[in-house]
Amino acid sequence: MTVTGNEHLITRKAGSMPQPSGGQPRTPVRVLVVDDEPQIVRALVINLRARKYEVDAAPDGATALQLAAARHPDVVVLDLGLPDMDGTEVIKGLRGWTRVPIIVLSARQASDEKVEALDAGADDYVTKPFGMDELLARLRAAVRRAAPGGDGEEAVTVETDSFTVDLAAKKVNRDGTDVRLTPTEWHLLEVLVRTPGRLVSQKQLLQEVWGPAYGTETNYLRVYMAQLRRKLEADPAHPRHFITEPGMGYRFEP
């Protein structure tokens, strides 16, 4: 199923209407949908409720902030193009008092606007038109990371099918052999593996690894990500664990 943002169209393959079985939360999870496009809201509400989510909807930023304070959602799906304020202002308003996961859902495709939303505190960014299955998968991942004892809880050891990262010992093992990393490579790896499945912006990576004075030297990231992939990925040309989100940042997938 694909939902578009500009033409207000929903296309659905025959027999693809989502069913409650498969991928639904074990306990009720409350989702706040913030979008002024009725067709988008309707599609999200139908799909989320079919999977037993509880859903609130807001057509503008002011209503979204009020509902968030009153209903305490477990995750927010937020459009940036709202009629009363920019979506980044809603993100900043939420981040003033809550760490609720925020997934931006927007037709804006410019890299600087995506980065601005991520730097404001968004956890993920999905561009319209979007695939419903992908959005729901990202929503489930965001909820898991935020849940007590979920992926958001810091792990001492991170394991993948290719390598193991021991955060306490600051060691990486691949196929039974320790992998030698430079201090910069290790720091970059550490930032990424501590937030599995979450998109980390280029600016955040640069500032955490190289320092607060850095924020635009994206060539540093390209060089060191290439080195990490050569050392840790089974196929560096087609990475499985260190994923590039063009113009935005990088994501670690265990």
UniProtKB/TrEMBL annotation:
<keyword id="KW-0805">Transcription regulation</keyword>
<dbReference type="GO" id="GO:0045893">
    <property type="term" value="P:positive regulation of DNA-templated transcription"/>
</dbReference>
<keyword id="KW-0804">Transcription</keyword>
<keyword id="KW-0963">Cytoplasm</keyword>
<dbReference type="InterPro" id="IPR001867">
    <property type="entry name" value="OmpR/PhoB-type_DNA-bd"/>
</dbReference>
<feature type="DNA-binding region" description="OmpR/PhoB-type">
    <location>
        <begin position="155"/>
        <end position="254"/>
    </location>
</feature>
<dbReference type="InterPro" id="IPR001789">
    <property type="entry name" value="Sig_transdc_resp-reg_receiver"/>
</dbReference>
<feature type="modified residue" description="4-aspartylphosphate">
    <location>
        <position position="79"/>
    </location>
</feature>
<feature type="domain" description="OmpR/PhoB-type">
    <location>
        <begin position="155"/>
        <end position="254"/>
    </location>
</feature>
<dbReference type="GO" id="GO:0000987">
    <property type="term" value="F:cis-regulatory region sequence-specific DNA binding"/>
</dbReference>
<dbReference type="GO" id="GO:0000156">
    <property type="term" value="F:phosphorelay response regulator activity"/>
</dbReference>
<protein>
    <recommendedName>
        <fullName>Transcriptional regulatory protein KdpE</fullName>
    </recommendedName>
</protein>
<comment type="function">
    <text>Member of the two-component regulatory system KdpD/KdpE involved in the regulation of the kdp operon. Upon phosphorylation by KdpD, functions as a transcription regulator by direct binding to promoter regions of target genes to positively regulate their expression.</text>
</comment>
<feature type="region of interest" description="Disordered">
    <location>
        <begin position="1"/>
        <end position="26"/>
    </location>
</feature>
<dbReference type="InterPro" id="IPR039420">
    <property type="entry name" value="WalR-like"/>
</dbReference>
<dbReference type="InterPro" id="IPR011006">
    <property type="entry name" value="CheY-like_superfamily"/>
</dbReference>
<feature type="domain" description="Response regulatory">
    <location>
        <begin position="30"/>
        <end position="143"/>
    </location>
</feature>
<keyword id="KW-0902">Two-component regulatory system</keyword>
<dbReference type="GO" id="GO:0005829">
    <property type="term" value="C:cytosol"/>
</dbReference>
<keyword id="KW-0597">Phosphoprotein</keyword>
<dbReference type="Pfam" id="PF00486">
    <property type="entry name" value="Trans_reg_C"/>
</dbReference>
<dbReference type="InterPro" id="IPR036388">
    <property type="entry name" value="WH-like_DNA-bd_sf"/>
</dbReference>
<dbReference type="GO" id="GO:0042802">
    <property type="term" value="F:identical protein binding"/>
</dbReference>
<dbReference type="GO" id="GO:0032993">
    <property type="term" value="C:protein-DNA complex"/>
</dbReference>
<keyword id="KW-0238">DNA-binding</keyword>
<dbReference type="Pfam" id="PF00072">
    <property type="entry name" value="Response_reg"/>
</dbReference>
